[in-house]
Amino acid sequence: MIERLLICNRGEIAVRIVRAARELGIHSIVAHSEADDDGLAVRLADQAICIGPAQASLSYLNVEAIIAAAARTQADAVHPGYGFLAESAELAAAVAEAGLCFIGPDAKTIARMGDKASARREASLVGVPIVPGSQPLDDDLDQAIRIAGEIGYPLLIKASAGGGGRGIRKVENAEELARQLPLARAEARAAFKDERVYLERAISHARHIEVQILADGERAVHLFERECSLQRRRQKILEEAPCAVLDEDSRQTLCASAVRLAEHIGYRGAGTLEYLFDEATGDFFFIEMNTRIQVEHPVTEMITGVDLVREMIEICAGRALGITQAEIQRRGWAIEMRINAEDPDHGFFPSPGRVERLTWPAGPGIRIDSALYPGYRIPPFYDSLAAKLIVHAEHRDAALARARRALDEFEIEGFATTAGLHRRLLDDPRVREARFDTQYLEAWLAGTTHEETLA
C-alpha cells in the first residue's frame, strides 16, 4: 500500500498524477526544479521539495537527487510521469534498491523493451510482426551497407536506446548511409549515452497506431488503439481514438498482439505498443514499446472510462489487474490537441511567456490537462507543451465539431501557441475524412499536396 508518493516530473503530467494520488488518498509530493517553484503541481500537491536548478540534468534527470528527495520526504513510492527519467532503468533500479515502489515496470523490463533492437526480438518471439530491419550494427561500414542492401532502401537509422521520435535518420542509398551512420552514432551517444544503432526499412506512407495496455505481471488487457499519424518531425501534434481506418477484425488482431507481447515479457503497469499500419495492405508492424504513461493517454481514458494513472499506481502498489478484457468497452470518439507554446507562423519557434489572459473552453465532452494559470510564466528550459485540449463525442464527426467549438472558445494572451494551427488543421478536408499518414502534416505545413508526397 502506498501512502506517500514522490512525483519527479513537472507540468501537466505532474498535476495529473497529483490529482490521481489525491483521489486514492495518497499524500502527494512534487519534486521540482528551482524554475518550477511556482508550478501548478507544486501548488496543488500536499508537499513539494526542490531537487536542483533549472537545468534538467541537475534536477529532473538527477537520479541521486530524486532518491535523496524521496528519503527526505519519507516517500514510499516514486512516479516518473513521462519524459525525463520515465523510461530509465537506472532510476527504476535505484528506487527498488532504496526499498521504494517504482510506478512502472521493473528495471529489467525497462531495459529489455527500452532497447529497440531487444524489443523487436521479443516481439518476433511471440509472432508479432516487425518492420524488416537489422540487429545493432557493428562498427563496420561495409557490413552495414551489405545489410542495408538486403533490407532495401529507403531505410531508417534508429538509435537502439532512442524514443519519443528522437535518434532517427532516413537514408535513401548507400552513399547517404555512409555519410549519416557516424552522425547517427554520435547523436545517439550524446542523447542516450548509447551509440548503438540499427537499420529498419522506411515505410513511407504508413499510419502510426498504438495500443494501450495495462498489465500486472501475469495478465494483460488492451484498451484499444490510438491514431497518432499527424506528426511534425516525428512529434505527435493531434491524436484520436479509435483509429478511423481500422476494421474490427484488424483491430482485434492488432490489440491481441499487444496483449500477447505484454504477457510474454511479464509486463507490469501501463504501457503502449507502437505500430506502423499500411492501410493499402492491411499489414501492421510493431516498432517499439513505451514503458510509461503516454502524453496522449487521455483519449483512451475518454473512450473507455478507465483512469489509467490511477490504475497504474494501484497495480504497481501490488494490486492485481482489477478489470477483465470483456469489461473494457469502447464508447464514442476522442481527440486530443497538443497546445504548445510555439509560433507556427515563425517556424514553430519556442514562445515561452507569461499567461496574461486565459479562458478555457467548457461544456459537455471537454477536458483540459494543463498546468497553466493566469499570471504563470512558462520557463524556457523545458519542452513546449502548455496544455492538452481533449474532446469526446458520440462519433468522429461530432468530436471534430466539438474540437472546433472548443478551440473557438479557447483564449490565451501572453505568448504564441499552436491553437490556431489546430483550428486550420480541423478544417482540412483530408483530416476531416481521415485520409492522412505520418507524412501528411509535414507536407500540409510545407504547402504541398498529399499526392505530391506520394509521388
TrEMBL record:
SMART domains hit by this protein: Biotin_carb_C
EC number per UniProt: 6.3.4.14
Keywords annotated in UniProt: ATP-binding, Ligase, Nucleotide-binding
UniProt domain ATP-grasp: residue ranges: 120-317
Catalytic activity: N(6)-biotinyl-L-lysyl-[protein] + hydrogencarbonate + ATP = N(6)-carboxybiotinyl-L-lysyl-[protein] + ADP + phosphate + H(+)
Domain Biotin carboxylation: start-end pairs: 1-446
Role summary: This protein is a component of the acetyl coenzyme A carboxylase complex; first, biotin carboxylase catalyzes the carboxylation of the carrier protein and then the transcarboxylase transfers the carboxyl group to form malonyl-CoA.
Protein name in the entry: biotin carboxylase
